[in-house]
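Question:
Now give any protein.
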Amino acid sequence: MKLYKHYDLIRKPIITEKTTDLSAQNKFTFEVSNIAEKPSVKAAIESIFGVKVKKVNILNTIGKNKRFKGIKGRLSDKKKAIVTLEKNYTIDFAGGIK
C-alpha cells in the first residue's frame, strides 16, 4: 500500500445542520479521499487537529443521476468519515470568526 500524506486523505469538513447537531455528541464529519481507510483517517485527524480519536465510521455515497439544463449527468461518488473524539477533545471549525 502506498503511503499518503494526511492532507491528501482529508479533503474538507462537512458542515450542515445534521453534522452540527452531531458535534454536540463529539462527532465530526469530513469528506475523505476514495482510497482512505479507517486507520489512515484516524492518524490524519489526530495529526492535523491534535486530538485523540475514539472511533471512525466511513460511508460511501454513490452519486445520483441528475439532469443539468436538460442534459443527463451524474454526480460524483463521495466518501465520508464520521469521527468520534475522546471525551475532553473538540475541533473548532469557526475559530476566529466573529
User: Anything to note?
Assistant: The beta strands are 10-13, 27-32, 53-61, 65-68, 71-74, 78-85. The radius of gyration is 15 Å. The longest helix spans residues 38-49. The chain has three helices and six strands.
